[in-house]
Specification:
With 371 residues, this protein is α/β, with parallel strands linked by helices. The chain is built from 14 helices and 12 strands. 5-amino-5-deoxy-1-O-phosphono-D-mannitol binds next to helix 4 and helix 11. This is glutamine--fructose-6-phosphate transaminase (isomerizing).
């Protein structure tokens, strides 16, 4: 049921404040006798000790689910102190890459039925790794065949383009990193700030959804473009990949997410006065590096659209040369949840304006059950 929305993708983008609330319900603990803040993930509690002892955490997924894991990687490394590596499921299988008994392999999949991810799970089980599932479908093959897991509880997602599952996956993995990290004194303030940020996140997503009309206006400007680049780094490298995936998948426009640190190693050659480029430059430890990227793209007369923190619009663009999208600022590791929303809206409006099928993009299926 689409309610008053025209498309499922539109409905699913707009219901993210509610889906995120459901994802967190009953899992964040604030107050109580010890007055401390913590995370409770029922499906994992018997395995946390084993996960903490693992030599490596390997995230495995495809498409948007892979991107969600990539967005969570930095906070996982920070809070757990365990090396985290990333695997696209098909590539792990192609290489028969090493997976060990001492590894924890985390399988991220909205449907829980993706063939490549399921085969990678069988491979990891054969190699003796502890296998954790992060899925949106409790009865799915991945949920049933992993040793333990977390249900993301985002509600059914109908649009082929994954939107609300992406933000719920990031939130689940942020909670997972808090649960694995344990409660050491040195990380207490950081953990509590993240938990406070999680409580407030649905409200901040509600605020960023108000950009709907602004993103429709931007889509109108970009309607006839051949290509769109999206530059991100750090916590928002994944946002760049995910924003570009949405644009290519539904709006059928070539789009590429680029790690900004790689700019001078090739992509800079593409920049001229005609190619539109989104630069994600919200406030975090990488902000000054992104400012310098903006300067360099500007020097090559790039057509810039800068996604920045509220209040930064006037300062991020050299000589007011670019368009800006201001978003609310949240705890750095949660910022990808906010930053992806305008890009989801942009992809949605571009698709409608270009006259393509929003919920069933050509050649794609919701659940990819063949290799
Ligand atoms: O169900 P899964 O999360 O395992 O699906 C993985 C990808 O097929 C999926 O995320 C795909 O990339 C989406 N259509 C992107 O919007």
């Amino acid at each position: 049921n689409k309610g008053h929305y025209e498309h499922y993708m539109q409905k699913e983008i707009h219901e993210q404040p509610e889906s995120l609330t459901t994802t967190m319900r009953g899992r964040l603990i604030r107050g109580g006798s010890s007055k401390s803040k913590s995370v409770l993930l029922g499906g994992l509690k018997d395995h946390l000790k084993t996960i903490r002892r693992s030599r490596r955490i390997v995230f495995i997924g495809c498409g948007t689910s892979y991107n969600a894991a990539l967005a969570a990687r930095p906070i996982f490394e920070e809070l757990s102190g365990i090396p985290v590596t990333m695997e696209i499921a098909s590539d792990l299988l192609d290489r028969e890459g090493p997976i060990y008994r001492e590894d924890t392999a985390v399988f991220v999949s909205q449907s829980g039925e993706t063939a490549d991810t399921l085969l990678a799970l069988q491979y990891a089980l054969e190699n003796g790794a502890l296998c954790v599932g992060v899925t949106n479908t409790a009865s799915s093959a991945i949920a049933r065949n992993t040793h333990c897991g977390v249900h993301i509880n985002a509600g059914a997602e109908i649009g082929v383009a994954s939107t609300k599952a992406y933000t719920s996956q990031i939130v689940v993995m942020a909670m997972l990193s808090l649960a694995i990290g344990g409660d050491t004194i040195s990380t207490k303030a950081r953990r509590e700030a993240i938990i406070d940020g999680l409580y407030d996140l649905p409200n901040k997503v509600r605020e960023v959804l108000e950009l709907d009309q602004e993103m429709k206006d931007l889509a109108n400007l970009l309607i006839a473009e051949q290509s769109l680049l999206v530059f991100g780094r750090g916590y928002n490298y994944a946002t760049a990949l995910e924003g570009a995936l949405k644009v290519k998948e539904v709006a059928l426009m070539h789009s590429e997410g680029i790690l900004a640190g790689e700019m001078k190693h090739g992509p800079l050659a593409l920049v001229d006065e005609s190619l539109p480029i989104v630069v994600i430059a919200t406030r975090d430890a990488c902000f000054s590096k992104q400012q310098s990227v903006i300067q360099q793209l500007h020097a090559r007369r790039g057509r810039l659209i800068v996604l920045c923190s509220e209040g930064d619009a006037a300062s991020v663009c050299p000589g007011k040369s670019c368009r800006t999208i201001e978003v609310p600022q949240v705890e750095d590791c949660l910022q990808p949840v906010i930053n992806v929303v305008p890009l989801q809206l942009l992809a949605y409006h571009l698709t409608v304006l270009r006259g393509f099928n929003v919920d069933q993009p050509r050649n794609l299926a919701k659940s990819v059950t063949t290799q």
